Amino acid sequence: MIEAVTKGRKDTAMLSFSSVLDPNEIVAVVDFIRQEFMTDKALNTKYHTKENGWEGHEQYQLAFPFALGEIAIDTPGEHLSESQRLGKQIFMNSCITCHDRARVMDEGVVWDPRAVSFPRNQYSHKTKSRNLASDVVTSATSYAKHDIAPKFDDLTTQQALGESLFQQNCAFCHAADGTGKNWIGSFLEPHPRNFTDPEFMDSVDSVHLRNVIENGLPGTTMSAWKNVLNEEEISAVIAYIERVFKPSSP
């Protein structure tokens, strides 16, 4: 360790400190490191000091479990106590810039595309005009393929009605192919439900779908449709979703 501090380590960010510290100071640094971190297993030197602008750092103590990774930041709110929910809010407002996401239970996708331009005036996901939907239809984007609806020639009358309603209304967020990976869907957080996810589709039934469509999902952009579509139309949309996207459907 003395040699590493003195001479540095080739091909790493560890530079030589021989021109900064004298031999006795290098020995003192190494002795401190070995005692503090290797023998005593102490936490890293405190950063949250008055001098660093963290006077009264204890006021953030409810957020400490999230910063230290004791509680995963993506723990569902219903599994957190009232004080833990407040601690998560403090962490998200004050701590996450330096602590990043701390610890999560679900790592998520390695790379998630995001749209970099905004919808223009009079934008419609149904228009074929390149002037109004250029970000959707141009081959230069990754979104165009998701606005191509799947083709089925054997839909029942009810399913065909559901297809029409889905493409006119639901596809705006969920994409024509049901992935939620279209231009608009990429803006929304959380992303719209991906109906092509077989694990999700196998875990839900028509009762669940009806409840969500009728009443929406709190905390998301999925709004209630019970005042827009009647019961027959909602049943048709469900029939279409289950026929086209549910793996176990005939």
Give a written overview of the molecule:
- The protein has 250 residues and is mainly alpha-helical.
- It has 2 domains: 2-99, no CATH class; 130-245, Orthogonal Bundle (Cytochrome Bc1 Complex, Chain D, domain 2).
- It is built from 9 helices and no strands.
- It has helices at 2-7, 23-39, 64-67, 82-99, 130-137, 157-174, 198-203, 206-215, 231-245.
- Helix 6 (157-174) crosses helix 9 (231-245) and helix 8 (206-215) crosses helix 9.
- The mean pLDDT is 87.
Q: What is the CATH first-level class name of the largest domain?
A: Mainly Alpha
What structural class results from the helix and strand content?
mainly alpha
Number of helices: 9
CATH superfamily of the largest domain: Cytochrome c-like domain
CATH topology of the largest domain: Cytochrome Bc1 Complex, Chain D, domain 2
What is the total number of structural domains? 2
Give the amount of beta strand, in percent.
under 5%
Shape: elongated
Q: Compute the gyration radius: what is it?
A: 27 Å
Q: Tell me what the CATH architecture of the largest domain is.
A: Orthogonal Bundle
How many E-type strands? 0
Low-confidence stretches: none
What do the pLDDT scores average to?
Answer: 87
Helix percent reads 40-55%
Q: What separation lies between the terminal Cα atoms?
A: 67 Å
Main sheet record: none
Order of helices and strands: HHHHHHHHH
